[in-house]
Write a structure and sequence with these properties.
By secondary structure, the protein is α/β, with parallel strands linked by helices. 31% of the residues lie in helices and 28% in strands. The protein starts with a helix and ends with a helix.
Length: 152
């Protein structure tokens, strides 16, 4: 959690990072201590509500959830992301005995439940990455993160 949080903190005015692991939270807090707009909290979805936001990054987290909690987490993400906002999800593809789901299963649910435009897809043997913009297909923001950000 600390690596990604520190990298995102350089690009965000405000950033709230969550993890259920106290050790991961402490590492991220140390790494971002010099960034005034960063909050790092020990929390998790779907138990804790997501605040309204422009970007949700789901990195290596959703396969820890059982199918019912995964659906609840995706619903929470849908409700939290502002129109034109972005959802980025990346997950390991190889099965891990301790994980209730695989990355492939998680992304299949995301692809089914997020009816927004997928603006980026990257598939490798080791991981999947999908990016959506929270806009209906007829909205020009749906085709481009740059358009969603007002850059063109």
């Amino acid at each position: 959690m600390g690596e990604l949080t520190a990298a995102l903190a350089q690009r965000c005015d405000r950033l709230t990072a969550w993890d259920v692991s106290a050790a991961a939270v402490e590492r991220a807090r140390r790494r971002t201590a010099d960034r005034p707009g960063v909050r790092v909290e020990q929390r998790g979805v779907p138990a804790d509500p997501l605040p309204a936001c422009d970007l949700v990054v789901l990195s290596e987290v959703l396969y820890y959830l059982d199918p019912g909690d995964l659906l609840a987490a995706v619903a929470a993400v849908r409700a939290a992301v502002h129109p034109g906002g972005t959802v980025l999800a990346v997950h390991w593809r190889h099965p891990v005995a301790e994980y209730p789901q695989t990355g492939d299963a998680v992304h299949a649910v995301l692809r089914r439940e997020l009816d927004w435009s997928r603006v980026a897809v990257h598939e490798e043997t080791d991981f999947l990455l999908d990016c959506w913009v929270a806009a209906p297909a007829a909205d020009r923001r749906a085709g481009s993160v740059a358009a969603a950000e007002g850059l063109w």
